[in-house]
Each structure stands twice: as structure tokens, then as C-alpha cells.
Amino acid sequence: MTYAFSGMLAALAGAFLSARVGGAFLGMADPYLLETFGSVVVGDTPIFGGKATPTGTFFGGLFLVLLVTVLQIAGYQIGTQYMIKGLLLLLVVIIASKSMQRA
What we know:
about 0% strand, mainly alpha
């Protein structure tokens, strides 16, 4: 049931994105992949197995949206924004792996 609901939401998001762009082409959602994985990882979903919380994922996504907004207002180029988001994700993964080793 969960996978069917996820697939339905993905199809709906794809329809909205293609309506916004005015057509569909391969790889049109590639710029959103880092934010998608980032919101899950920053939202404290265990990447090595465990139970995820939708609330954590929501707040992880909210944090990344606020981070991107602040970086855009500050005038950073898109490459610098990707580097900062990537470093943030790397830091979160390192912290998560360290906490898994202690447990």
C-alpha cells in the first residue's frame, strides 16, 4: 500500500512538473534529486536501516528549503550552493555513521 501511494504521489509530482515546464523530457527532475535525498537524510531517517518518521523528513526538507533560500538571497552561485548542500549531507552521514558505531 505504501509503495502504491508513493508511486501515485511521484506520478502526480511528475505531472505537475511537466505542466510547469510545458513538456516532458528525460532528466527534467535531476536538479531535485539532491534536495530529495537531503531532506530524508537531514530529517534523521536512518540510511543504514531503521524506522523513518514523516515529521523528521518534513523538517529536513523545510531546513533545506530555508538553506537554499538563504544562499540565494546571499547571492551564492548555483555551484557553491550545491557544494554547501553536499558538504551538509556528508556531515550528516558521517555523524549518523558514528552514532551507529557507538550503538
